[in-house]
Amino acid sequence: MSEPELVFASPRKLPRANKLRGRVVVLDIAFAADGIGKGFKKSTGKFITQLGDRLVRWVDHHDHERHVDFKGDPRFVLHTKAEHGACPEIITPEMVHESGPVDTILAHFDLDGLYAAAKWMLGGIEPYPGADDDARAVDTRIGEPSPRAQLIDKALRVHYADPVLKIRIVRWLTRGMKPGIELETIKEAAADFDRKAEAARALAERYEITGDIALVEVPQGVDLDKTELLLLGQRVATVAVVVDGINVSIAAPFDSGLNFVELLELGGGMPTRVSVPRKRLTLALARIRERLAKHTASSPS
User: Fold this and answer.
1) 254 CA to centre of own chain
2) For residue 294, what is the domain's CATH number?
3) Strands (E), 232-277
4) How far is CA 148 from CA 2, 211, 246, 290, in A?
5) Secondary structure of residue 221 in the 3-state scheme
6) In the chain, how many domains are there?
7) Is residue 244 part of a domain?
């Protein structure tokens, strides 16, 4: 039996359902948030309807208020980020077996999504011992991932739009992780990360800290790794805010207790890392400051 076709996407950039072959499983792709872009109805909802009976499973771990609408549908295995820090740990041999053969795996384009795709292709078995833990460490930024996962994470953070790299990563994971073109491609992509990380470290010196919020604006034309910049901001404040053109990225540690999805009424997404339009920056900062003040006031001295 041939391997399923691999397709990669994000909540706001889903492929056309009629372009996906046969029976489809969707892994680690959140429902679109109603506060950004087309929202759930015109993107996720439309996509689900168009797939129809060809949708075999939808496995995800991102918070969304519309999860409740699918509780009665066994095809949907939906959890929150607090329940499962990463998607692969949700996938079991029993789930894969019960789902039957699939023709297409549609997965998120980050490490979490690629590890989920690899685990599904391996019948619900980790590609290597500790892979689920690695996916959780990378997706929550809590704990230390293995050198293998760090290498893949670096490669993807720089070349997340490269479909060939993603396919080679999954093939490497599912075919014994041997030396060869797949590993060399990953190493070459990961090497590009260092340059962008250095640019992020340089810009991090410009963070302005007000209260427990660190904010910085990315100058036009600066090429850097935004995730690294956000992580550096979280070293000096609980909340890091990066303004990049018309977009604003907001992040806090996974265990901070903050939920930006609820606080900013976004409808869905990762509770501790969100994006909002620049026009919402002032409102977002005001609400975050208010929440941080309440948290400080309620904390024991």
Assistant:
1) 13
2) 3.10.310
3) 239-244, 247-251, 268-269, 273-277
4) 27, 37, 35, 40
5) coil
6) 2
7) yes
